[in-house]
Amino acid sequence: MRAIILAAGKGERMRPLTAHTPKPLIPIAGVPLIEYHLSALAQAGFSEVVINHAWLGEKIEAHLGDGAQFGLHIQYSREAQPLETGGGIFRALNLLGDAPFAVINGDIWTDYDFADLRKPLSGLAHLVLRDNPEHNLEGDFALAGERVLLPCEDSSLTYTGIAVLHPKLFEDCAGGTFRLAPLLRTAVQQHAVTGEKFTGRWVDVGTPERLAEVEALLARL
């Protein structure tokens, strides 16, 4: 199974840290954020990784190279302007192949075991969900056993940015800039999405405050 790390965002909410440094290279406890993902993917048995990028993407390529230092083979999907989550994955499909692939948002930190993603996919997507953080109290989806549902008033969970997707999820797409969420919601309505609830450590590193949260968390480990 191949994996794609989504790393094309500009990190506007992280400025001025991202003015000259792409968000995936912002250090956390002295280690660039994206390196936590790469090390975890290698440990989980992945060998082929795609990274999409736009803003200051050349710095990501210069820092990570071909991935040999992590025991990986990295390919890059370059975007002139960020294509959002759906558009970025669609553009990279030629590098991801015809089989299901893992997706990891580049702006999260987690101790989720990516080896758990290396399982047969029964539908179009498998999502890793968790209890809603304070910045997303309404949630994104609900879960009934392994079946993902649309959220309701008394039951919702947050999508962690970790998933397994089948290329067929994108078969009606035409490229360009678009988000992944509408595709997932349509697939949920078609009963084609499974999921799991993750109870470990996870932070959406989208602001300087949440960056400090991860720093404090790692200091306690």
From TrEMBL:
<dbReference type="InterPro" id="IPR054790">
    <property type="entry name" value="MurU"/>
</dbReference>
<keyword id="KW-0808">Transferase</keyword>
<feature type="domain" description="Nucleotidyl transferase">
    <location>
        <begin position="3"/>
        <end position="117"/>
    </location>
</feature>
<protein>
    <submittedName>
        <fullName>Nucleotidyltransferase family protein</fullName>
    </submittedName>
</protein>
<dbReference type="InterPro" id="IPR029044">
    <property type="entry name" value="Nucleotide-diphossugar_trans"/>
</dbReference>
<dbReference type="InterPro" id="IPR005835">
    <property type="entry name" value="NTP_transferase_dom"/>
</dbReference>
<dbReference type="Pfam" id="PF00483">
    <property type="entry name" value="NTP_transferase"/>
</dbReference>
<dbReference type="InterPro" id="IPR050065">
    <property type="entry name" value="GlmU-like"/>
</dbReference>
<keyword id="KW-0548">Nucleotidyltransferase</keyword>
